[in-house]
Design goal:
single chain, alpha+beta, five-stranded antiparallel β-sheet, three-stranded antiparallel β-sheet, 11 strands, elongated
């Protein structure tokens, strides 16, 4: 279990953040200690605020008296409401807040359920409750609670899982922004790509696309990016999301810097020659598009093809998950450009391949009977997209270990709420 502790001036900000989720049916009020509730058992921001008012009114010198805590079990843990209530109470006792008023919310807006606790760090006499060695105390409390409630140990999991898992966005599951953020936030840290086209080829594996936007602001030309979620056919199924929602690395300027850095690294990459050879062997060993893609997929390489409306191939990109690099076919060799594959898959003329070791061709393909010359309608609409999405876990295996399932969008909103200036209680 992981705990995150935030401090701020605005009680209203912390409460409204959680109560807004309650109104949207993505959170529930689980429990409260010393909290006023309505006769019908419901809670309002005004009533909850009143429960803290006496403590805040007597506050002496504490600048940030509001404490907002999130407790996050491992995604594989299944915690019921009663256990969550007990975990919250035990955690508050261990942190020195056992006698304070606090309210507990359960959030269900992402696959990983978790709880948020809002309290104040000044006692009934206005004195600050000590936060000395707070992180150490919190970690110790989490380890004890993991044993008490049979939860997975976050330290052990962290040692095994050090990088994020990238899962395709499922727009039907809801909370699309958080799903997209879990991919977009991390891709620049782990993959090298040199153009917006290769970036979008990589994003397409996860049902996302980015578009460049241009305009004028105060007489100056401005450029930026917006992101969309895609369905299995590659069609946009969400409103546009500004790049700023996903962190600095998702923005236009930062992306250009990433392109330049990636270009320098890929030019001297030893993987380029090996990847070219692997693709050429797959061409020689396969009969059609489906077999070719399957053979590369077995080698940890995705193929993303771009088609015109009249079914002509105008772009082909290879995503090598072993080296975490993205290449247009023309970057690897002239015979691996889009025109060569268009001639093969549309006109039956394979690209000319000259291998130094032609006897080693069969090693490029593990299942020579996969597929046939006929592709499904969905694949012709956006080849590789649904195929790649379904095969991601099989291809990557331990290549992309999992984090604790953090929700970037919620984490950012949480941080913003804690930074708000106090405006008093709103009724």
């Amino acid at each position: 279990m992981i705990a995150k502790i935030g401090r701020g001036k605005s009680l209203f900000g912390a409460l409204s953040y959680n109560m807004d989720k309650v109104k949207n049916n993505t959170a529930t009020v689980l429990a409260g200690q010393k909290i006023v509730e309505s006769p019908d058992g419901t809670f309002t921001i005004s009533q909850i605020s009143n429960s803290f008012q006496a403590y805040l009114a007597d506050n002496r010198k504490t600048e940030k008296p509001v404490v907002h805590i999130s407790l996050n079990p491992d995604p594989d843990d299944r915690v019921n409401n009663n256990d969550y209530k007990a975990i919250a109470k035990d955690y508050m006792d261990k942190m020195g807040y056992g006698k304070q008023p606090f309210i507990v919310f359960r959030h269900n807006d992402i696959e990983r359920s978790h709880i948020h606790i809002v309290t104040v760090c000044v006692d009934e006499e206005g004195r600050k409750i000590s936060d000395a060695f707070e992180k150490r105390k919190s970690m110790a409390a989490c380890r004890e609670l993991e044993q008490t409630y049979n939860l997975k140990n976050a330290i052990e999991k962290k040692q095994i899982r050090t990088e994020p898992i990238f899962k395709p966005v499922n727009y039907k599951a809801g909370d699309v922004k958080s799903q997209m953020a879990a991919v977009i936030r991390y891709l620049p840290k782990y993959y090298q790509y040199t153009t917006l086209g290769t970036y979008n080829a990589l994003l397409s594996l996860f049902n996302i696309t980015a578009e460049e936007v241009k305009g004028q602001y105060n007489g100056k030309a401005r450029q930026g990016l917006v992101y969309f979620a895609l369905n299995e056919k590659g069609e946009k199924v969400s409103n546009p999301f500004k790049a700023s929602l996903f962190g600095k690395g998702a923005g236009y300027t930062e992306l250009l810097s990433h392109f330049a850095a990636s270009k320098a690294q890929l030019q001297k990459s030893p993987r380029r020659s090996a990847l070219k050879t692997t693709i050429e062997k797959a061409i020689l060993a396969t009969k059609n598009e489906n077999e070719f893609k399957a053979s590369l997929r077995d080698a940890g390489i995705n193929t993303v093809v771009r088609w015109t409306a009249d079914k002509r191939i105008y772009g082909i990109t290879f995503i090598d998950h072993k080296s975490r690099s993205v290449w247009n076919g023309s970057q690897l060799a002239k015979n691996l450009s889009a025109s060569g594959f268009n001639e093969w898959w549309n006109n039956g003329n394979k690209p000319k391949i000259h291998l130094q070791n032609p006897n080693n061709v069969k090693s490029a393909i593990t299942n020579p009977t996969v597929g046939d010359n006929t592709s499904s309608q969905s694949e012709k609409t956006n080849p590789n997209l649904s195929d790649a999405a379904n095969a991601l876990s099989d291809i990557f295996g331990g290549l992309l270990p999992q984090t604790q399932g953090e929700d970037y969008e919620e984490e950012e909103a949480f941080a913003r709420q804690m930074k708000k200036k106090s405006k008093g209680f709103r009724r």
